[in-house]
Amino acid sequence: MSSKPRTTAKTWTNIGSVIPEGQSVYVIREDVKAKNLLFLGTEFGAFVSLNGGQTWTDFNLNMPTVAFHDLLIQPRDNDLIAATHGRGIWIMDDITGLRQAAQKLPTEDAALFETSKAGHTLAADPARRRDMGAAISSIRARTRPPAH
């Protein structure tokens, strides 16, 4: 069973009825800026809620099926950092869009979200792109299984 405190941890609300059966919950994190935005780390993946735990969505995206034992929201860059045991970490860059969704979607049928300003640019250097492409091709050739 998963639960979260309603206010000061004197009362709790059950939020585990929508998590798939048989999944141990290791961590739950509430976003510091959007209180309805919750992240849950379980034995077999991660989940996200935009409405304070009333409903949950599988949040595995491109992550492997592993246990997520810790979740951290990095306040400066608004990144979600998910830690596993044995597979390393996974970082979702800038969760500002999820914050906006948690604030707008429960009250609106549709919403437009603000985008973050770009902080870096990549110079269009054709020689560098050629070198990078050759390096990627070389890595693929070395890691590709032999043809049978």
Provide a compact summary of the structure.
The protein has two helices and nine strands.
Helicity range of the residues? Answer: 10-25%
How would you state the average pLDDT, rounded?
77
- List how many beta strands DSSP finds: 9
Strand order of the largest sheet: 3-4-5-6
- Give the overall form: globular
Task: Quickly count the domains.
Answer: 1
Number of H- or I-type helical stretches: 2
Biggest β-sheet description: 4 strands, antiparallel
Strand content: 25-35%
Unreliable stretches (pLDDT < 50, length at least 5) are none
Ends: how far apart? 49 Å
Order of helices and strands: EEEEEEEEEHH
Q: Given the helix and strand composition, which structural class is it?
A: alpha+beta
**Radius of gyration, Cα only, in angstroms?**
20 Å
Topology, please?
Blueprint: E1 3-5, E2 12-14, E3 25-30, E4 38-42, E5 45-49, E6 57-58, E7 68-74, E8 79-84, E9 89-92, H1 96-104, H2 126-143
Antiparallel strand pairs: 1-2, 3-4, 4-5, 5-6, 7-8, 8-9
What tags apply to this protein structure?
alpha+beta; 148 residues; single chain; 2 helices; 9 strands; four-stranded antiparallel β-sheet
